[in-house]
C-alpha cells in the first residue's frame, strides 16, 4: 500500500457513513468475529526472546527497552481500532511478536499514513508497519523487510449496478486511500492509458481519502462507483459490510509488504531475523490465521527484496 491528503468528509452520507465506519472499526462486542473466520480474541502462543537476536539489537534501543511502531489504524484487518480505541490487527500482532523476539516492548502509535516514512527518517518511530508495499522507490530512502504478499483488488456495490468492466475503468469514479499504490496506479497508469485510447480518464485521478474507512463509505454511499485497495482489505470490507459490496475482477499486481526502517539501520537485520524466526516456529501462521489473511503468507523474509 502507499499514502494520502486531507480527507474529504462525506457529510451527505449521513447514517450510511456512520454505520459503515462503525462496522469497519470493529465496533460492537470486543469478542465479536472480525469476519472470514478470523477472531480478534484468538490466542497466539507465547513468544520468547531469542538471545542471538537480542544480542543484535542496537545498544540505544536495548537501553530504552522498547520500539515505537507507527501504523495508520484505518486499514482493517491489517491495522485498525477496536471499540475502545485500541489499535489491533495483523500488523499489530506481528509487531508485538517481533518485539518479543528481540526482548523489547512495543508501542504502536496511530499515524497518518503519509507521515510514517518521514517520521521514521526523523527517528520519531523505529518501525513502520502499515501495509507498506515494498518497492524500489521506497527502498531508495528506507529499508524494507518483507513479511506478507498482497495485490490490488477492486470492489463495487453488490450486483455491480453500474456494470463496471474491471478492464475498463476509464471515466469511472474511483475511491482510493491517498498515497497508496492504488492511487499511484490511477495517476501513472490507468488515466494515461485511457487518454491514449481516446477515452476520458478517471475523474480527479480518483477520489482520495486519508482513511480507508472513508474510501469504503464512499462506495457504499454511492459517492463513488469503484474502490481500489490491497486484497486483504477488500476481502475484509466485503465481509464487514454485510453483503453490500462485491469484488470486481481478480487480484492484480501482487507484491510484498515490508516493515519500514531507517535506511541502513542496525535494527534492520534483527527485525528480519525475528520475522523469519516467527515464520519458522509457527507464530506467524497463527497471527495470519487469526485475522483470516493466511492467503498472503510467505515463507522467507528478506531485506529490500523489491523487484520493481
From TrEMBL:
InterPro entries assigned: Solute-binding_3/MltF_N
Keyword tags: Signal
Signal peptide limits: 1-17
Isomerase keyword on record: no
Residue ranges annotated for the Solute-binding protein family 3/N-terminal domain, each copy included: 66-295
Keyword field contains Signal: yes
UniProt name for this protein: ABC transporter substrate-binding protein
Protein's organism: Streptomyces kaniharaensis
Amino acid at each position: 500500500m502507499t499514502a494520502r491528503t486531507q480527507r474529504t468528509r462525506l457529510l451527505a452520507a449521513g447514517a450510511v457513513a456512520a454505520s459503515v465506519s462503525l462496522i469497519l472499526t470493529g465496533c460492537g462486542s470486543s469478542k465479536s468475529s472480525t469476519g472470514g473466520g478470523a477472531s480478534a480474541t484468538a490466542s497466539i502462543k507465547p513468544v520468547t526472546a531469542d538471545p542471538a537476536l537480542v544480542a543484535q539489537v542496537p545498544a540505544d534501543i536495548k537501553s530504552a527497552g522498547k520500539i515505537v511502531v507507527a501504523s495508520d489504524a484505518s486499514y482493517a484487518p491489517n491495522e485498525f481500532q477496536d471499540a475502545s480505541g485500541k489499535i489491533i490487527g495483523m500488523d499489530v500482532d506481528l509487531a508485538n511478536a517481533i518485539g518479543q523476539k528481540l526482548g523489547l516492548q512495543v508501542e504502536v502509535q496511530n499515524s497518518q499514513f503519509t507521515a510514517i516514512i518521514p517520521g521514521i527518517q526523523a527517528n520519531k518511530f523505529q518501525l513502520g508497519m502499515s501495509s507498506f508495499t515494498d518497492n524500489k522507490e521506497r527502498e531508495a530512502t528506507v529499508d524494507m523487510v518483507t513479511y506478507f504478499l498482497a495485490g490490488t483488488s477492486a470492489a463495487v456495490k453488490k450486483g455491480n449496478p453500474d456494470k463496471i468492466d474491471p478492464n475498463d475503468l476509464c471515466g469511472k469514479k474511483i475511491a482510493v486511500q491517498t498515497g497508496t499504490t492504488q492511487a499511484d496506479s490511477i495517476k501513472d497508469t490507468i488515466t494515461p492509458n485511457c487518454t491514449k485510447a481516446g477515452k476520458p480518464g478517471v475523474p480527479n485521478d480518483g477520489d482520495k481519502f486519508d482513511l480507508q474507512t472513508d474510501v469504503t463509505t464512499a462506495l457504499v454511499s454511492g459517492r463513488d462507483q469503484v474502490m481500489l485497495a490491497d486484497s486483504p482489505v477488500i476481502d475484509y470490507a466485503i465481509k464487514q459490510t454485510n453483503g453490500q459490496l462485491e469484488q470486481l475482477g481478480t487480484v492484480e499486481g501482487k507484491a510484498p509488504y515490508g516493515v519500514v526502517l531507517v535506511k541502513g539501520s542496525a535494527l534492520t537485520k534483527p527485525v528480519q531475523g525475528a520475522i523469519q524466526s516467527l515464520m519458522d516456529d509457527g507464530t506467524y501462521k497463527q497471527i495470519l490465521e487469526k485475522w483470516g489473511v493466511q492467503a498472503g503468507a510467505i515463507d522467507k523474509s528478506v531485506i529490500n527484496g523489491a523487484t520493481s
